[in-house]
Every structure is written in C-alpha cells, then in structure tokens.
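Write out the bound-state structure for S-adenosylmethionine.
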Amino acid sequence: MVFSAIYPRLDVRVFCVLCISSESLMTIKVWVKSRLADKALKPVRLELCQCLRDLNLERSQRADLQVTEFRVLDVGCGTGDFLFRCANQITHGLGIDLDQDMVTYARRQAEQNQLSNLSFQCIDAQSLQQPMFDVGVSTLCIHEMPKPTALSVLKRMLAQCSELLIADYTQPKGWFSCAGIELDELMSGHYRHFRRYRASGGIDGYASEIGARCQRVCDSELDGIAIWRLSINQPG
Ligand SMILES: C[S@@+](CC[C@H](N)C(=O)[O-])C[C@H]1O[C@@H](n2cnc3c(N)ncnc32)[C@H](O)[C@@H]1O
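---
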C-alpha cells in the first residue's frame, strides 16, 4: 500500500527487477533468505556454535592424542550462514543443499571472505557419499522432508558423522510462536511433511525409529526450536 502510494507507476515486477539488479543478480529467494531469515535465525546459529565448541572440547578430553581436525557437515545449508559463523572453529566445513541458487551464493560468499576451509555442493543429502565428518549439523531441514526421506537422511548422516546436532521445530510455549510457525509452514509448500513430522514426535520420534541415541541439548532462545544431539546407539 505505502509502496504503491509513493511510487504509483512502479508495479511489483519492476520492484523485483530493481531488487535483483541492486543485489548483483541474487535471486529474490536468496535475498530474502540471507537478509531476513538468516538474521532471524541468529540465536539458533550462536547456540549451535556453542554446541560445536562443547563437542570439540569433549572430543579433545576423550582423545589420548591431540585432536587437530574438526570437520563439520551442514545438511540443507541454505546460504551457508551457519558455516560462516563457525568457520574459525573448524578445520573444514562442507555445506550441501538441493537448491543451486543457495549453493552459488554460499560459494561466492566463501570466496569473497577468503574462507578456503569451507566448500559447498549442490547434492541431495540422500546420496551423500563423503568421507567421515566429526559433526553433522542440520537446521530446520528435517521437518520439511517427506518422512521416509527424513529417516534416510538422518541414517546417512549418522553413517558419515560421529555426532549430529539437529536444530528443528518442537512444541512452542507461546501462542504467538505457535501461530507464526503454523503460518510459515502453511505457506511453505511442505505443510503435510511438517504435520507428519509433528505427529511422529518430531526429532525424538524420528531418532527412535532409526534406533539412534538422542538427547535434547537445549531449547533455543527462539520459542518453538530446539537442538538435539544424535549418535549411533552403541549396544552396552
Ligand atoms: C528451511 S531451509 C533451512 C536452510 C538452512 N539450514 C538455515 O538454517 O537457514 C531448508 C533447506 O534444506 C534444503 N533441502 C531440503 N531437502 C534437502 C535434501 N534432500 N538434500 C539437501 N538439501 C535439502 C532446502 O533446499 C533448503 O535450502
């Protein structure tokens, strides 16, 4: 309304073109993700960075030899924002995503910031065939997958990574967050996957179906999101 009142001759398409050119050909989707969603998710990123530090500390206390490598995999990395935030804590980070635009943006950011320890690939997490990682991370990705895909991705991540940190939806405490998440998921195009995720008990439910050991690490400062730590359930 305000926009059309000030610029009556500009329609939405012209506005979109202006956005694209001013952001060096970044697509609107990537622009929205990097300028809005990534900023909103900052508390979760910082909490995950702290979890990574704790895991690394635990690892080095457990190991007899000095631990030098710390390799992290980010499944459904989007713009790569999480890996950029933890780049100085890790020796190598690989971000994978199905969306080529996100991967192109993340690669360009890594180049511009001369972060040679980060790489990004456009691949399906189900066909992941990389060497081992110390930690696999995924943020707000599992709930949007069809259940069989989510289970297969979690299994594959567990096979490739010693530990997983999964940040995803849980039951919100407040009605405002509850309505916000519901609305966001309704508009996202994967609402039925989200409902199935919720009906299955979220990450706890999925973890128990694949026989993983699952520990809820913390509730995020963002109401409705929690972080879980998953590992292979060792007998005994
Ligand atoms: C809600 S976004 C979250 C992005 C990012 N993790 C973040 O926190 O901003 C979910 C991402 O998962 C990606 N994704 C969904 N299914 C995937 C799959 N099977 N393999 C790799 N990426 C996938 C989507 O392309 C999307 O970028």
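---
The chain has two domains: 1-34, 41-232.
The beta strands are 71-75, 92-96, 118-121, 133-139, 161-169, 212-219, 225-232.
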